[in-house]
Design a protein that fits this description.
single chain, alpha/beta, Rossmann fold, globular, 5 strands, 171 residues, binds shikimate-3-phosphate
Amino acid sequence: MKRNVILIGFMGTGKTTVGSRLKTRLNWVHIDTDREIEARVGMSIPDIFSEKGEAFFRDKETEVLKDILTQEEQIITTGGGIVLRDENARLMKDGGLVVALFATPEEIIRRVKHDKQRPLLSGDVEERVKRLLMEREGKYDFAPLQIDTSDKTVDEIVDIIVQACTVNGCV
Ligand code: S3P
């Protein structure tokens, strides 16, 4: 297995928080696909969505993912919609240990309610989260490691991932 940990999950499931703690634990590089897209395009995610459109963003997402996965010893955090393309799922499965984080709809809504950086949640946040969760049902299931974050601390989640990584030979 390639020596990368790839965190996937719906918006607000804690990918970024877990990713930065994992970085400290494994002493690997932490790369976030959204931040990489912003750097390459020179625009924020909300601006990319409003000025260039979602299809452009999704193309960039695949491009960035491919490039990142040529390297190893990375914690890769991803945007919640990266699983929408089967090609991305294939790339990730071949690119390292894929870990899916989950949280209850209530917990997700609580975490993202006041956030203005997520264009797909503009308007009625509760309604948007519930609809997108429904549309994306099953999309994160290809990950060999699935973690429900609702009842766990960040350190507990990181322990589970490091343990799985050791067993799978990725650290
Ligand atoms: C998206 C999730 C966002 C970001 C973009 C689209 C999605 O990332 O990539 O706003 O489609 O779920 P986070 O999951 O980090 O919020």
